[in-house]
Amino acid sequence: MKYLAFAAGVLTATAAWAEKPVLTIYTYDSFVADWGPGPQIEAAFEATCDCDLQFVAAGDGAALLARVKLEGARTDADIVLGLDTNLTAAAVETGLFAPHSVTADYDLPVAWDDATFVPYDWGYFAFVHNAELAAPANFRALAESDLKIVIQDPRSSTPGLGLLMWVKTAYGDEAPAIWEGLADNIVTVTKGWSEAYGLFLDGEADMVLSYTTSPAYHLIAEDDATRAAAAFDEGHYLQIEVAGKLAGTDQPELADRFLAFMVTEAFQSVIPTTNWMYPAVTPESGLPAGFETLTVPERALLVPPAQASEVRDAALAEWLAALSR
Amino acid sequence: MAGRAQPVSPAAGLAAAALVAAVILGPVAAVLWRAEGGRGLGPADWAAIRFSVTQAVLSATLSVALAIPVARALARRGFPGRAVLVTLLGAPFILPVIVAVFGLLAVFGRSGWISDAASLVGLPPLQIYGLHGVVLAHVFFNLPLATRLILQGWRDIPAEHFRLAAQLGFGPRDSTRWLERPMLARLVPGIWAVVFAICLTSFAVALTLGGGPRATTVELAIYQAFLFDFDLGRAALLALIQIALAGSAAALALWLSPGEGSGGGLDRMTRRWDTGGPGLALWDGALIALTALFLLLPLAAIVADGLGGLTRLPPQVWEASLRSVLVALASTALMLVLALPMALAVASGRRLAGDGAGILGLAASPLVIGTGFFILLNPWISPASLALPVTALVNVLMALPFALRILIPAARDTAQGYGRLGLSLDMRPRDWLARVVLPRMRVRLGFAAGLTAALSMGDLGVIALFADAEAATLPLQMYRLMGSYQTEAAAGAALLLLALSLGLFWVFDAVGRRGAEA
């Protein structure tokens, strides 16, 4: 009898759920954290869609794509949010993603015409340091200095991979020489961004690979103006974060609505002070106070998505060879 | 096998061992089955294997070699605070690696306490990053555990042996030869193999303190194969190599260590007469003090760092703490159900089954196991809904080798000392377990349960692969805080984690020891 009652309870609960369509979005961990953008965006979208929006944390960057590949066409995900342009070509190749029909007036440093993915935020990679430090103006000056840096491993971390692409796009065939010059500046290489940033805050290094927007967190959330990002004259590599709809989604219309919602004010205004990145479409009210103090690079560097995986493999081999000596 | 060794059959233990092997190898097989093509192992993978083995051999050898004199000193000296120190020996081991690394760096880092002190007299900062840093961190993790396990060996030497030794006029050197060396020969190879297996699978520690891609371990190569190249075949192959390496270490240990026990006694309190002169007392004191400093300074750094953040913890961290405690308790219960029969089976002479299956859990790559479970579960049920049970299960697999190292010596002594008596009395298995085995193994069970609970509490492990937004554990929440610039709150969460882990460890350990010798 008890079991019957339990079964009945489960069935009723399921029926109640079934009334509202569920939109499942796979994303990375810090997006869904309670202090990340996830909760606010969920509330804002659910207020308009009469649906249940569920975020699933499925690892960052490459892990997110690996998860979708593992699940293949059976995946529960309707949308994947959190890939970047280094991964989009590989994602399209899986054939699991469907084209979108979103148009927006993007405030990106590059033109955007990807048929499959919609950008929601972006940032420049940069070395963050204490404001009083006389920061070098480029990789060569950094390599010649005695400054100590912490970076992330490109094999396990998105910023780590970004740095690899940065040096490769800025220096091409000279990249191995740059890495050999940097070898004695690198204190250590960490698994992810968190470890590296923590080491920097603990004083283990003079600079850490992060984003030009990192000082905004310290300024806005901690009222601490002592961090800055070094401007490099060879330009800064871009990270553009995107979302895409899965071809096998059982909620195609809802997914389309979410992608369209993503470039609106309600989504974009949450991004700067929760994800600490630039919104893909600047909100009408502008960027939060404090963002105007950030370093703005003169040149944006980006490998076209189609060539990303080729450049990546070559650059990784060079990086390993230069730093394994 | 000449007849039975005790009134319970080893069947349950063998079944538990088979289950453990299936749960570990099944997911690896699933990953292999799902793999398509792949390019096999390249030179970089072999370099990773070489580095992993080198640092693991160094770390395990150093940890165990240092643990022996420290355990000996602790075994023959009594001093105020000894019980607390013995409990704290468990602390480094149960910390999430990243917390421990930050603790270590606060002491040994470029801007750590030692470097700061050195700069006062004009010396350059300490250079911690490199192979020596990796080994230092692994010794920090494993020296205390090895010490605690070896200390158990001293406790297992019956008090009567020391009494007899005193009557025969044994000095410290004679005790070493006749009492301690045979005990160490039984224990040390197995402990070495367990520490080797842990260090072999190290990833974040090796990379962070190793200073760069030279310090690439097999686990990082697995990450690269899986995430960077999506080459499941290579990931599974590397996982199997890792298991084979740890398995060989375990087999070597089995082959090197004789299987008999310490012999029976009357369970009197051990009193020691072979404590030597003041010189030896000074040596022991210095050893204990140095070990305590090496362990406690990084812990003190974690506490000092975290106090400020405790007030800034978001409410979700408290919910996550509750979830983590429940997972830890579930892991502990499941560990006891598996480990006790396995230990009894080993005591009945089935050494390979118990010990061999036990060590697999340490050598298994969390990424491959997690992915394998994912592939197995995904067609039937949403893996995210099973995130917590799978986490508990994987924690059990990790804790099992330690639990077995703790339980096997006592199970063996019980079987050898009382097994024939039990058989001749025709005791029912239930009475044998309730009246002989459990009372005699209570202290060990408490220690093993405490270690499992604490280990499970601090493990980030597979939860990161599975978790949905709502089911985060405390280590995962701590990591999320770190990943969103909230360093201070993350340090607070780390302190909370340390306190909860040690608290759980202490409760189980104390319940086991109540009324027994500390």
Shape of chain B: globular
Report the β-strand fraction of chain B as a percent range: under 5%
In quaternary terms, these chains amount to heterodimer
Overall mean pLDDT score of chain B? Answer: 82
- Mean model confidence by pLDDT of chain A: 89
Q: According to CATH, what is the class of chain B? A: Mainly Alpha
CATH architecture classification name of chain B = Orthogonal Bundle
Q: Which structural class fits the helix and strand makeup of chain B?
A: mainly alpha
Write up what this structure looks like.
With 325 residues, chain A is an alpha/beta fold. Chain A folds into two domains: 2-121 and 240-292, 3-Layer(aba) Sandwich (D-Maltodextrin-Binding Protein, domain 2), CATH 3.40.190; 123-237 and 297-323, Periplasmic binding protein-like II (D-Maltodextrin-Binding Protein, domain 2, 3-Layer(aba) Sandwich). In chain A, 41% of the residues lie in helices and 20% in strands. Chain A contains 14 helices and twelve strands. Chain A has helices at 2-19, 29-32, 38-49, 62-71, 88-93, 139-144, 158-171, 175-182, 193-201, 214-222, 252-262, 265-268, 271-274, 305-323; strands at residues 22-27, 52-57, 79-84, 97-98, 117-130, 149-152, 186-190, 207-211, 227-229, 236-246, 278-279, 300-301. In chain A, strands 1, 2, 3, 4, 5, 6, 7, 8, 9, 10, 11 and 12 form a twelve-stranded mixed sheet that branches. The longest helix of chain A has 19 residues, at 305-323. The model of chain A is unreliable at 1-16 (pLDDT under 50). Chain B has 518 residues and is an all-alpha fold. Chain B has one domain (29-513): MetI-like fold (Orthogonal Bundle). Helices cover 76% and strands 0% of the residues of chain B. Chain B has helices at 11-34, 43-76, 82-88, 91-94, 97-108, 113-120, 131-156, 159-167, 172-200, 204-210, 218-228, 232-256, 278-307, 315-347, 351-363, 366-377, 387-424, 429-458, 463-466, 474-482, 487-513. The two termini of chain B are 36 Å apart. At the A-B interface, helix 2, strand 2, helix 4, strand 7 and helix 9 of A face helix 5, helix 10, helix 11, helix 16 and helix 20 of B.
